[in-house]
Design goal:
The chain is mainly β. It contains 1 helix and 54 strands. It folds into 6 domains: 301 residues, no CATH class; 84 residues, Immunoglobulin-like (Sandwich); 75 residues, Sandwich (Immunoglobulin-like); 68 residues, Immunoglobulin-like (Sandwich); 74 residues, Immunoglobulins (Immunoglobulin-like), CATH 2.60.40; 85 residues, Sandwich (Immunoglobulin-like). The strands form 14 sheets. Strands 2, 3, 6, 7, 11, 14, 17 and 18 form an 8-stranded mixed β-sheet that branches. It has a 6-stranded mixed β-sheet with strand order 20-21-27-26-23-24, with no helix packed on it. Strands 36-42-41-38-39 form a 5-stranded mixed β-sheet, with no helix packed on it.
């Protein structure tokens, strides 16, 4: 059995909050001792977290109130006292009773006590001694709204107890400050009774008390809802509300199986399953001769934290699987088995050794790590001992080793090299350590997990086939083998893009036969159009004729198939396109033309002027609406739908009628004010008009026929005198001819 030696981690849920008046209190209880008839010694015990952020410690003076009365009637306030804290307070030791566990440095719980003696005359009604204080820790996990409720520490002196001068029992030990999560826990929560009465133990609900008035909310802090009631509120007192269904008074820490308390011994046992802080009530009922004398109620807070082990026998979790303190490993094949020791607390380990046995052999090692070498197939057990026989800091763990022989992968196949049928593969693997459970086939473009699969290759070629097998022990092996698959197609499927057309006819033959690739020998024969060895050739049929086509396909394994198609392709003759211009256009004033076909073998005729179809028929009357050259395209179609075309250009000449006057009168009367040309200059360019005076000085010049001379020097200077002035006119006609005209113009004022 593995011995768990624990080192508490520093990850704790602190008993702290922002309020010094509240969250430092973590539990307490009230007890009494009968000194003599009617005289009692009362003790209040309070627990606090001494490392909290509280601004004060225990209450230096605790308000303790005594009521008398029964349930269902008004309670009589008998005493209201202020009891001073006993000094010094006591720090509760974290007794772990194990040298391999170290409590965290910042964890501390203190116990403070208040006690006093008081005379309480024997009465037929019970006395209730009570102290109330707010609040509980905000982080408590098992009760509702812990930040807004406090605690009530109370004990009842029943009439029966008064009559016989009974004393209440008292707990034998301090409540455990900390508990390790997911570790078996045992705590003796028993009490002793000075009168020897029978004691019965149970979990019960801690009692609510006090509130947040005077702290979070305005008001009197000493009232019943205040955080320090003075006097304490009268009975009865309500139990705290647990968060159902996870928690309840009798299952205060949750989990499955639950934490249990022995009703006869007070021993608490179980394994806490959740970290956190838990408010728990422990009630001890005292019976004498079957009559209830008193109930001792301790309100306690248990803190469950993560713990780690200072000495812990651990192996590599990446290699071994741990279950029930046994590390198991399964190894395949003849490889050395090396076991690394990952145990915690090597500095605390003075003695250690390994013991391995199996297959009739036993090995002992006293090294930290061990190398078992290559083990024969079989089962082996072992144990790692740390500080064997020592008290406290010892641990051990068990090993279960299984060595298996790998399987041997293999497969078989058979197929007709010329057939396109799928190939049937059969597993031929040999198991050794256990039955083969998995088959993984890799065909390149596809995989299979069948034991004996069939596979159809999508294309011919050489393929590396791999089979990987795994047996029930997860031992594996694999094998690869090359397969060549080059069958001939069962049928030749050819799809030309056309079967007939006009010469020259260019046809693509799409080869849809399967399977073929570039490694196959393809022998095409197109008659006088030639031959080809391409898979899908393009062929130019130039001669007008009807052609036979044949194809033979030979695989790399000499598997052969052939097919021929007689008179499969027909090439038709083209027509001859020609036309004559019956009437040509004169110039832009008469731009009409007439054309007529002279094609000897046309059936349909189209006339296309500058890319635009205009007329159909053997002749056409055309109107050319602008000057320049016009392309006339004549398209002829014969009875086979074959076409031919030819074009000619027709020219439409511009019309010119430009002249200059011999006199002008720039006198402001609005008539004949400018010297400028009149008429039409269609298609002309490089226009220039220049005027000089009698001294040969240029007095006007323009490059635009739209601008004339107004009789002033350059049209802006002083006025020219009346008289005759030389001029020169030049421009280039539409046909490229240069026109020059010189003369005199008379200026009249």
């Amino acid at each position: 059995m593995k011995t768990n030696q624990l080192l508490l981690t520093l990850i704790l849920f602190l008993f702290t909050s922002n309020l010094g008046w509240a969250s430092h209190i973590v539990g307490g209880y009230m007890k009494y001792e009968c000194v003599s008839s009617g005289k009692y010694h009362i003790t209040l015990t309070v627990y606090r977290n001494c490392n909290s952020q509280a601004q004060d410690n225990f209450d230096f003076v605790a308000p303790i109130t005594i009521y008398r009365g029964n349930v269902g009637e008004d309670y009589e306030l008998v005493h209201d006292m202020q009891i001073s804290l006993n000094q010094p307070v006591f720090t509760i030791p974290t007794l772990l009773n194990n040298p391999c566990i170290e409590p965290p440095d910042d964890f501390c719980v203190e116990e403070g006590t208040y006690d006093f003696e008081i005379d309480l005359p024997i009465s037929n009604k019970p006395y209730h001694i009570t102290y109330q204080r707010c609040c509980r820790n905000w982080n408590i996990a098992n009760i509702d709204d812990p930040r807004n409720i406090g605690s009530t520490f109370t004990i009842e002196i029943t009439p029966a107890a008064q009559t016989v001068c009974n004393s209440s029992p008292d707990f034998n030990d301090y409540p455990p400050p900390i508990i390790c999560v997911n570790q078996p826990w045992f705590f003796d929560h028993s009490a002793s009774d000075p009168d020897g009465d029978q004691l019965v133990y149970e979990f019960c609900a801690p009692l609510e008390g006090a509130g947040i008035v005077g702290a979070y909310e305005p008001g009197d802090p000493t009232g019943c809802d205040g955080y320090r009631p003075n006097p304490s509120c009268a009975p009865p007192y309500e139990g705290v509300q647990f968060i159902l269904p996870e928690y309840s008074p009798i299952e205060p820490m949750g989990g499955d199986p639950k934490i249990e308390m022995n009703p006869f011994t007070g021993e608490i046992t179980g394994t806490p399953q959740f970290e956190g802080q838990y408010s728990i009530g422990v009630c001890v009922s005292e019976y004498r001769n079957g009559q209830l004398m008193s109930v001792l109620r301790r309100d306690v807070q248990f803190t469950v934290v993560k713990c780690t082990q200072l000495v812990d026998a651990i192996l590599d979790n990446n290699i071994f699987e741990l279950e029930n303190n046994t590390y198991s490993v399964k190894q395949c094949g003849a490889e050395p088995l090396i076991i690394d020791n990952f145990s915690i607390g090597e500095n605390f380990v003075d003695d250690f050794y390994w013991e391995i046995y199996g297959n009739g052999n036993t090995w002992n090692f006293n090294t930290w790590d061990i190398n078992l070498g290559t083990l024969e197939a079989g089962h082996y057990d072992g144990t790692l001992f740390l500080n064997p026989g020592a008290t406290g800091c010892s641990d051990s763990t068990f090993l279960s080793i299984d060595i298996f022989e790998n399987p041997e992968a293999g497969f078989q196949y058979a197929y007709d090299t010329c057939s396109i049928d799928p190939i049937n593969f059969s597993n031929a693997s040999i198991p050794f350590g256990g039955a083969i459970a998995k088959w993984n086939w890799d065909f390149g473009e596809a995989q299979s997990t069948d034991q004996n699969p069939s596979y159809q290759f999508p294309d011919p070629g050489d393929f590396q086939i791999k089979l990987a097998v795994e047996d029930i022990n997860e031992c594996t092996d694999s094998i690869e083998q090359m397969i060549s698959w080059y069958p001939a197609p069962e049928v030749i499927v050819i799809e030309p893009n056309t079967f007939d057309g006009c010469a020259p006819l260019f046809i693509g033959f799409e080869n849809l036969s399967w399977p073929i690739d570039e490694t196959y020998d393809l022998q095409w024969d197109f008659g006088q159009a030639g031959q080809s060895n391409q898979i899908s050739p393009f062929v130019n049929f130039e001669e007008i004729d009807t052609y036979d086509v044949s194809l033979k396909i030979i695989s790399p394994f000499n598997c052969e198939i052939s097919e021929s198609w007689e008179q499969w392709i027909t090439v038709h003759p083209d027509p001859t396109s020609s036309f004559e211009v019956v009437m040509s256009p004169e110039d832009i004033r008469n731009p009409n033309a007439t054309v007529a076909t002279t094609s000897p073998d046309g059936r349909f005729w189209d006339w296309i002027i500058e890319g635009q179809a205009t007329q159909y028929g053997p002749s056409a009357n055309i109107e050319l609406r602008d000057t320049g050259y016009w392309n006339i395209l004549h398209v002829v179609e014969n009875e086979f739908g074959c076409l031919d075309s030819v074009y000619q250009s027709l020219y439409v000449k511009p019309y010119n009628s430009f002249f200059l006057p011999n006199a002008f009168t720039p006198n402001g009367d609005g008539k004949n004010e400018l010297f400028m040309g009149k008429g039409i200059l269609m298609g002309s360019s490089k226009f220039s008009l220049t005027v000089w005076n009698r001294y040969g000085q240029q007095i006007f010049q323009t490059t635009s026929p739209e601008i004339g001379w107004n009789g002033k020097i350059n049209n802006v200077g002083k006025r020219a005198i009346q008289g005759a002035y030389p001029f020169e006119l030049q421009y280039t006609r539409f046909d490229g001819q240069l026109v020059t005209e010189r003369g005199l113009v008379t200026l009249l004022r």
